[in-house]
User: Fold AB hydrolase-1 domain-containing protein from Miscanthus lutarioriparius.
Amino acid sequence: MGPQLAAVGPAIISPRFRTTLPCRTRPRGLTSWRRAALPKDEDYYLIDAEESIGDGFSFSGGKYGDGPSKSDEWFAQGKMVNAYPVYGAKGKAKDPFFGLTMGSGSQSSDDVFRWFCMEAGSSSNPKVLLIHGLPSQAYSYRNVMPVLSDKYHAIAFDWLGFGFSDKPQPKYGFDYTLDEYASSLESLVNAVAPDKLSIVVQGYFAPIAVKYASEHQDKLNHLVLVNPPITDKHVNLPSTLASFSNFLLGEIFSQDPLRASDKVLTSCGPYLMKEEDAMVYRRPYLVSGSSGFALNAISKAMKKDLQAYIESMRSILRSNSWKTKTTVCWGMRDRWLSYDGVEDFFGGLNQKIVELPMAGHHVQEDRGEELGNIIRSILR
Assistant:
């Protein structure tokens, strides 16, 4: 029987928000809509939270308040897991602009990084590791995990720099390079799934997971790639993500919660999201600058090394030594990664492709239950 994930390290308190700034008034019960600038009228982004009447700050349709939030609830259900050693000993992290010592959220752990993990299902069931894309969180799999939980032990985690996991200031224990992410993934897998497992990975972290899988095929039952960058057209980040890597402006844009969470979600697919869910994605950028600095660093790393990792992934999947059962799931309404050439590449390798007509880039966010059932049928 595999081990249950154990909570480690000091307790972390998920902060709540409160402010006395005035807000617009609106009768309770009305919904607040925000449409993205999209080509088709049926493609929209919905924020449907009630707005408070004079007791909070209206923020894109919602509010900060003293009551429990989805973010609090999600955090309370998860656990912190220690994995991947902190390199070097460079003292307290300082901000890159003024040289001031940064808050605890930007500091490295003492010796080993802490990862936020969520699990569902019995630990005696076959393990499935669910890996989110860029930029996202384990929260994106919240509707996938219940579908898998009766037959599998599903584990989702936040990458370092995202969600509730550690977000050290770049150059103070973790630099957010793709090589570091590949090495840290191995360490995390050893901590949460020391025996056999299947991996589901979405988006721009797929090449990192494929690199891991190629070196540990003996551990893998199945690999499911969800909208991975695979063709020559995918080697450049979309403008929404590339903007975070720009000199100076990237540092500014990555500190904006609406740019770092809302805009990236609305720009890559036809998302329909409640305000309470959108707030979970915004939260890391609202409580600390560490999430923004991490996003800036990983965007620069992706811009520099993504092409090489995609080329490596293609070589691995084409190789005669690749024996891992592989399936591709593709959200057909992905606005970041074109489907052109995807079918030719994977079809030529006799690897199955499952198309999801109504899903965008973050398939698990857009069509979570549907993706969960597809994963069940693949792993059966």
Observations:
- The longest helix spans residues 290-318.
- The two ends are 20 Å apart (CA to CA).
- Residues 6-64 have pLDDT under 50 and may be disordered.
